[in-house]
Amino acid sequence: DAKTTQPPSMDCAEGRAANLPCNHSTISGNEYVYWYRQIHSQGPQYIIHGLKNNETNEMASLIITEDRKSSTLILPHATLRDTAVYYCIVRVAAAAGNKLTFGGGTRVLVKP
Amino acid sequence: SAVISQKPSRDICQRGTSLTIQCQVDSQVTMMFWYRQQPGQSLTLIATANQGSEATYESGFVIDKFPISRPNLTFSTLTVSNMSPEDSSIYLCSAEANYGYTFGSGTRLTVV
């Protein structure tokens, strides 16, 4: 029951900004958007999350549209080490507690 | 942020046997999660494990096949029972941390 849609893959140039889109048109008002990435053979790594406002940290920026139906993760200066699968996730509230349900993700290849 | 140690990191098991995977968190956490990642696929949530209550399983996963223990706020185990080659996957433990969710590095299981 993943609630997000992402392009399956994208390439970007080293040193340039990478903009990763995500559609979550069925998101509810109290559901957060999380971004994780998974580098080959490792566990997912937290990047950023947000509810309504745009967010920025040392890794990336998260831009959420006003209607909250989509968002964009921005890696400001992509490096070769940013090559990974990036997951946009809507945190779902459940009886047992909030949980992350992963979708297909975007496979990002940073090229020299 | 919480750090998760997961073991074993990998194992090769005979069909029909069972394997127990351990997940240790370096701080107390309320919610822990178990995921499966089949080759080339995204992560699929198996169950949510809260201390003091029975695990809550996602559709398609049952307790007889994937029994889970959660004896305290820093530890959980997942057992893969009566294994078949279709159980060959990476199994990941996750915990809800201050900012979101942290993941272990996974257990790569091969069933022969």
Question: What would you say this structure looks like, in words?
Answer:
Chain A has 112 residues and is an all-beta fold. Helix content of chain A is 0%, strand content 46%. Chain A has strands at residues 9-13, 18-23, 33-38, 45-50, 55-56, 61-64, 70-75, 84-92, 99-100, 106-111. In chain A, a hairpin with a 5-residue loop joins strand 6 and strand 7 (70-75). Chain A is globular. Chain B has 112 residues and is mostly beta strands. The chains are: A mainly beta (112), B mainly beta (112).
What does the secondary structure layout of this molecule look like, with pairings?
The complex is a heterodimer of chains A (112) and B (112).
Chain A: E1 9-13, E2 18-23, E3 33-38, E4 45-50, E5 55-56, E6 61-64, E7 70-75, E8 84-92, E9 99-100, E10 106-111
Parallel strand pairs in A: 1-10
Antiparallel strand pairs in A: 2-7, 3-4, 3-8, 5-6, 6-7, 8-9, 8-10
Chain B: E1 4-7, E2 10-13, E3 19-25, E4 31-37, E5 43-50, E6 56-57, E7 68-72, E8 75-80, E9 89-96, E10 101-103, E11 107-111
Parallel strand pairs in B: 2-11
Antiparallel strand pairs in B: 1-3, 3-8, 4-5, 4-9, 5-6, 7-8, 9-10, 9-11
List keywords for this structure.
heterodimer; A: 112 residues; mainly beta; six-stranded mixed sheet; four-stranded antiparallel sheet; 0% helix; B: 112 residues; seven-stranded mixed sheet; 11 strands
Helix percentage range of chain B: under 10%
Head-to-tail CA distance between termini of chain B: 37 Å
Shape of chain A: globular
| Radius of gyration of chain A, in angstroms, nearest whole number | 14 Å
Helix content of chain A: under 10%
What is the chain-wise order of helices and strands of chain B? EEEEEEEEEEE
* Largest two-chain interface: A-B, 21 and 24 residues
pLDDT < 50 stretches of chain A: none
Poorly predicted ranges of chain B: none
